[in-house]
């Protein structure tokens, strides 16, 4: 093949003859004036985020030693790398596997089956798309095929019989002979990135980077995987063991399940493992009928609202007491157990054409007569359906038990929330004991991935030095200074700094039992002692007895109808008397109606044990809501706040509130406030 090389006389062919092509035309016109090219700005370096350095330690106050819920972590292997791999798990036909927890079982089987091909590497798998190892796998892209029994935590797929000996679904025996419960999965593992473990040490020196964030993410994924292998329920970085000692009944068939939060943190003292108690809500495990009775607060199964029960049970997991196999509830039967028919294939009875004959039978008769199972009350109740829409599989209610550790994600009632707070309360020593036991139970020292990183975790609470600051002095309306004691102070014989005047107001009574005339008299007298001038109320609105059994929203609406019909204009303030001391269902609708719809200031109270101290506390809230000022910090009287007092300054405060669990339709609300 000919080759051409440039020389001083132009191009020549491979035999040394001059190229016959004419010389190229000039590319620069004769009148061209070159311009100087301005130097380009050098590429900006990526900004490295570094925490604000601390100028020094404080010195005021009484020094004390404190124990924290942090456990010191040592890292000895900082020379290696985490290797990040992208994971794809699909069925044999290419459909992606999207069931929760399914991916973990498939990846575990890959590790068991192909351990040699993977060089015996341990994985940290996030349960979705990412997998991490310490050091590389043999190749950048690996493909595996594994076979698993039903991936849904040893559950049946909803079509097999409850005990593999027969079922209300006549086709079950035929299907059971097929290996349909064994599924084939394809797994692809592809290299994505390399993360230096040194990034952890760099972060501890204040050199934060994307690598350090990724490295800490890997460590937290290792904790999640470790908990998953122990059979825990995972809720982000919180882990919950299936131990009845950790369950607290909050009513309505709902339990508070106590677990712990665990994650790695960078601190001034180095790397630490932060552990704290955590609580999530779960469905009460055990007989389905017991859960429904508690959930709907009824006396017996025959009082259950089955339309509501169907919505509540949808997608919950059960196991049958006859076989201990698991199923997912898809619905309820349309008819009662004694009336619900299905076609049962007669194994040994064939027609003239050799086809297996079918017998129409009720679910109740099938279980009682064919399976010899005694049903005490299920005959007159709907059945649980664990099958598919076109191929239902019915199981009598009393044979079904709810599996443990199933999250309850609906909003809690006021009573449930109060019960949870009460039962979650812990004293410091009890909390320390729980956290120590959580660390021992976790057995992080046995986690192979952590060992590969050279990570060891102390079993002792990290100790830090703290200071008890002196309480700030307060100023009251009569010019008196006061020093709080043990975080408390009272307003006995003291006036407010800026008391308001209450002129247009009324009392609203939602069937609370009290002497309203005496209550109003005492409130006015107590207000006068604090400097608040309170006129007589315009009126007292008593709830009509006919609405007392209505829903809270209806009761509030009816009360407002009466208020609007009698008051000449919008009131300055409404005092609302509630019948329950705590957790009244009227509170939320009443507040919403007043504040959101009309912008009316309101104060609720339950007038059961009314004394001067109680009325003083109520008046402090009312005064603040109406724009008054109860007390000041003594320091606020003299401009002594550093910098802020000497230079015109505006201070901004911002916060955001998100919808609580079970209220996903409620938008997040952000608020900004400023003062100068």
Automatic annotation (TrEMBL):
One of its GO terms (biological process) is regulation of translation. InterPro entries: ArgoL1, ArgoL2, Argonaute_Mid_dom, Argonaute_N, PAZ_dom, PAZ_dom_sf, Piwi, RNaseH-like_sf. Belongs to the argonaute family. Ago subfamily. It comes from the Eukaryota. It holds the Pfam family ArgoN. This is PAZ domain-containing protein. Residues 1-45, 153-178 are annotated as: Disordered. GO terms for molecular function: RNA binding. The keyword Nucleotide-binding does not apply. It comes from Citrus sinensis (Sweet orange).
């Amino acid at each position: 093949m000919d080759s051409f090389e440039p020389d001083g006389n132009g191009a020549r062919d491979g035999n040394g003859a001059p190229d016959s092509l004419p010389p190229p035309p000039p590319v620069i016109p004769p009148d061209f004036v070159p311009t100087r090219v301005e130097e380009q700005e050098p590429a900006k370096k990526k900004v490295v985020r570094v925490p604000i350095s601390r100028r020094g330690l404080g010195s005021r106050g009484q020094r004390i030693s404190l124990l924290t819920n942090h456990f010191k972590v040592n890292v000895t292997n900082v020379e290696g790398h985490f290797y990040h791999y992208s994971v794809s798990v699909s069925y044999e036909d290419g459909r992606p596997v999207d069931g929760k927890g399914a991916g973990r079982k498939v990846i575990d089987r890959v590790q068991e089956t192909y351990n040699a091909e993977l060089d015996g590497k341990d994985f940290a798998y996030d349960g979705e798309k990412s997998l991490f190892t310490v050091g590389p796998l043999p190749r950048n892209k690996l493909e595996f095929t594994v076979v698993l029994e039903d991936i849904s935590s040893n559950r049946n797929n909803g079509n097999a019989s409850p005990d593999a000996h027969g079922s209300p679904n006549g086709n079950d025996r035929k299907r059971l002979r097929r290996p349909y419960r064994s599924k084939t999965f394809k797994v692809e593992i592809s290299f994505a990135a390399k993360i230096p473990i040194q990034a952890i040490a760099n972060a501890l020196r204040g050199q934060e980077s994307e690598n350090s964030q990724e490295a800490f993410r890997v460590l937290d994924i290792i904790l999640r995987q470790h908990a998953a292998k122990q059979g825990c329920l995972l809720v982000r970085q919180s882990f919950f063991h299936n131990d009845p000692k950790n369950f607290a009944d909050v009513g309505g068939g709902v339990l508070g399940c106590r677990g712990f939060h665990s994650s790695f943190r960078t601190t001034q003292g180095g790397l630490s493992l932060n552990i704290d108690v955590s609580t999530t809500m779960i469905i009460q495990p055990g007989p389905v009928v017991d859960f429904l009775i508690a959930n709907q607060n009824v006396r017996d199964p025959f009082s259950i609202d089955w339309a509501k029960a169907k919505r509540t049970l949808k997608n919950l997991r059960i196991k049958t007491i006859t076989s201990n196999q698991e199923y997912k509830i898809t619905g309820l039967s349309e008819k009662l157990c004694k009336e619900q028919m299905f076609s049962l294939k007669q194994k040994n009875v064939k027609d003239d054409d050799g086809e297996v004959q079918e017998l129409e039978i009720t679910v109740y008769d099938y279980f009682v007569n064919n399976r010899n199972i005694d049903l005490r009350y299920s005959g007159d109740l709907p059945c649980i359906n664990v099958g598919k829409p076109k191929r239902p599989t019915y199981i009598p209610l009393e044979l079904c038990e709810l599996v443990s550790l199933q999250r309850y994600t609906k909003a809690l009632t006021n009573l449930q929330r109060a019960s949870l707070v009460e039962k979650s309360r812990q004293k410091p020593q009890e909390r320390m004991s729980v956290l120590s036991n959580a660390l021992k139970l976790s057995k992080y020292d046995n986690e192979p991935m952590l060992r590969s990183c050279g990570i060891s975790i102390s079993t002792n609470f990290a100790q830090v030095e703290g200071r008890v600051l002196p309480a700030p002095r307060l100023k009251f309306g009569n010019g008196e200074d006061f020093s709080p004691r043990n975080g408390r102070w009272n307003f006995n014989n003291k006036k407010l700094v800026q008391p308001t005047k209450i002129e247009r107001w009324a009392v609203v009574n939602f069937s609370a039992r009290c002497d309203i005339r005496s209550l109003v008299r005492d409130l006015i007298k107590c207000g006068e002692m604090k400097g608040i001038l309170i006129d007589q109320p315009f009126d007292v609105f008593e709830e009509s007895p006919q609405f007392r059994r209505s829903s809270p929203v209806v009761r509030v609406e009816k009360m407002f109808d009466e208020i609007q019909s009698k008051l000449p204009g919008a009131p300055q303030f409404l005092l609302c008397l509630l019948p329950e001391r705590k957790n009244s269902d009227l509170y939320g609708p009443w507040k919403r109606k007043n504040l959101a719809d009309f912008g009316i200031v309101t104060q609720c109270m339950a007038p059961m044990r009314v004394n001067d101290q109680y009325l003083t506390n109520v008046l402090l809230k009312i005064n603040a809501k109406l724009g008054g000022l109860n007390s000041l910090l003594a320091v606020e009287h003299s401009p002594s706040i550093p910098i802020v007092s000497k230079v015109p300054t505006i201070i901004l405060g911002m916060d955001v509130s998100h919808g609580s669990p079970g209220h996903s339709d409620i938008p997040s609300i952000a608020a900004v406030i400023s003062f100068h």
